[in-house]
Structures are given as structure tokens and as C-alpha cells.
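agent> Task received from the user: take the single chain below, predict its 3D structure, and emit C-alpha cells. No templates, no multimer pairing.
agent> Plan: (1) validate residues, (2) run structure prediction, (3) serialize to C-alpha cells, (4) report one or two observations.
agent> Step 1 OK, no nonstandard residues flagged.
tool_call: predict_structure(input=
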Amino acid sequence: MARQGQKPQFVRTIQVRNENRVGVLAAVIQAIAGNGGDLGDIRIVSQSPRWVVRDLDVTLESLDQLDNVLTALHLVGQSKVLEVRDEVLAAHVGGKIRMQPTSELNSIADLGRIYTPGVGQVCRHLHEDPSAVDLYTMIGNTVAIVTDGTAILGLGNLGPQAGMPVMEGKAALLAHLVGISGIPILLRTTDPEEIAQTVANISPAYGVIQLEDIASPRCFEVERLVAERVDIPVFHDDQHGTAAVVVAALLSACKVKKLDINKQKIGQIGLGAAGLAIARALMLLTDNPVLGADLAPDAIERLTQAGGQPADIEQIMGVCDVVVATTGAAGLIKPEMVRRGQVIFALSNPRPEIDPGEAEKAGAIVAASGAAINNLLCYPGLCRGLLDARATQAIPEMFQAVSETLVELTDQGNLLPPALDKQVHSAVASAVARVALEHGVARRDADMVAIRELAEATAYGTP
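)
tool_result: status=success, residues=463
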């Protein structure tokens, strides 16, 4: 199925005071769920022998739903809604990232070192030795996060400025997890040629180009054109980052259930940016064709060119041992379509093609949603490794190394390691840098110790 736009979401924090007795919280939860609210975190604010005050994070599809939830909460015995807050919007006031100096500027002497006249010495040095630019500037620790705003979180074409909160979020995670400066680049064009030339023109300021939220099928051409015009790594996170993490999760599932992945018939429902990349990665891994379904003829053509086999949803659900869905269509897979023993990854957010619990109840031996399989496990470590090795390109072997590293670091019984564990991202970075060296795409010809020294010199691991 082709990717469809997601329904809008509203997250509100509702503070409720309830009588402190058994059964009241259950009634509150039922009031929220019964009116379409999706309950997240529950935090106790204060407690006494008689009363409990809680903050409840609730996700809704409309503000009318919020009114219904509030009305239902008022009807719960001995309950009172104290306030409703939009904490998500509040967290974005002023943006989530900012530029900060790394040197003190408290005196004329400081000024002379970091600006004129001292900076002229460094400029001359870099002119004579361009290879030193990574050491004496931020270029060797900086990633451009580029979007045209046409596929923002599956919500569709919201435009580049509406996509800025996502780009800021990516930058904040890069800084926190691997010490990289991520710079959002918003483009007021959707023309692949214009995007490619613009990115090529600004590329001297960056060590890696990370493409984000560019709609399919233009994203394939954009990535190709940009990669042809720059001498630094280029990757589209929605494609390659997602695929690397999905492959890791599938390898872990097969490991847990003692399945040979090379003997599993695999189907991919939805062949947009993520879906086609997943299908390609799985075919590269297993050397077997993947069955693919999509409503768009050009998507099917791309799958066929990659070695896959066209199918429809019924065929995939009927014959495949592994089913991956990336359609954006909530509830697309019905419980009666699930065959006993299948592995099902329904990855559309916020609502999957089938709830993992329903899939397992219908007979799936492993089921997961996009909430559990997150490409955050790929791009920070990938970018860190590319920068550490001063790589000239991002190659398929790097993404395979990401998948293998994630599997190695996954605890028994889980599909993936914790996404916020900095040690996981460090291990991914080392694996990627090692591949760059082994395959001759690293401009740094020293050993891994020297690469790690460069990482430390660029403040790796600092918040």
C-alpha cells in the first residue's frame, strides 16, 4: 500500500485529583480510553490519606476528543480536573538547539586568539594544508540535516518550516548521544536538481549530509544527485537508517525463535522510502527475493528492478513467514489475515497496521510496532563513525555493520538494545569507521586508536 497521511495528534497533560482509594484510578483510565484517548505516562504529583493528584499524558486525534475525555473524567466519583497543559508545545518554545562557543571570550587576549588577528594565522594554515580543516574547525564534527518538508513524520507535505521541530530534534539527539553538531537546513524547493545543487554548494561546511523527510519517489533521485556532486557521505535516514534497524530487529527475532533468516519467505507491504530500502536490505542480506505490495506502479517497478517480486497484501499474508508493513494505514492488517508462526513488524506510527498484541493473539510468534523499532539506533553512531574516519561516502557495508552491531548488543529476549544508551552508539560508530577503513573510503589512513583520538578531539560523548 502507498504511504498515507497520518491523522493529526494532540498530546495534553491532564492533572486530576482523585479520592485515594482502590478502583478510582482504574475508572479514570477507563474514562480516557473509552473516549479515544491514548494514555501515556502517569505521574503522582502529591498524595495524602484522602487525595492523590496525578499528571496524565494523553494523546488524542482531535480537540473534540479532549472535551469528551474531560467530561468523562468529571463523571468519575470524587475526581476533579485541576488543569490541562500542552507540555509538548511548551518544550519547543524558542527551539530545542542553539549555537554555543567552545572557547571563553572574556578579554581582549581571548578575542585576539579566537578572532582577529589570530584567526588569520589559522586561515593561512588551512589554505596551505586543507586536510587540517577537520582539526581546526567544526567541519569535521558537523552534519547537515536537510529537508524540503514534503514527508514530515508521515504527516505529508507540511513545508520546510513546519518540519523544523523534527530537524531540531535530530540535532539535539546527535549532540546528546555522540557529541555532533547537527545543523538543520530547510529548503524552499522540491525540485531534485535544485536541492542537489543547493546542497552541493553548501557542502564544504559539513562532514556528512543527512537527508530527512523528503517524499518518495523524489527522495531516491535527490539522494543520487547529491551523492554525485559532493565528496562527503550522503544518506537518507528514512531509507537506510530505518532499514538497518529493521534488519537488526529481524535478525534478533530469528535468533530468539531459532529461525534461519535465509529460509524465511519475506514480504514487504508499502514500498515508499522506508519500505523499498527495507526490501533491498533484506534481499542483500538473504540473497532471496522479497515479495512487495504497493498501490503505486512506479514503486512496484523499483522493487522489480531491485530483484523483488510483485504481490498483493493477501498473497503476502498468505505465504510469507515474515511480514514488514510501512504503509501509514492504521488497521490495514486484520487479525484473521495473520497466520500462526509469522513474524510481523507493523511499523507505521503512531498507529500500526496491526497492534502487536492483536497480532500475537492471532498467532504471530513475534510482533512489533514502530514504537519499538526506531531508526534512532542508527544515525547518531553512523554519523559519528563517518566523521571519525573522514569517510568520503556511506556504503551498504556500513549499514550492514550497524545491523550486526545492534544484534550483538541486544539482550536475550529483546529485539534491539536501548535507544538512549550512549555505549550502543559508540559501538556503532566504531563499526562504521572500521568498515570505512577496510573498504578504502576513509581519508584517514591511521589505525582505530588514532580515529578514536580524533573523536575525543571533537568532544565525542559530551552533552
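agent> Step 4: summary for the user.
Residues 1-5, 458-463 have pLDDT under 50 and may be disordered.
agent> Done.
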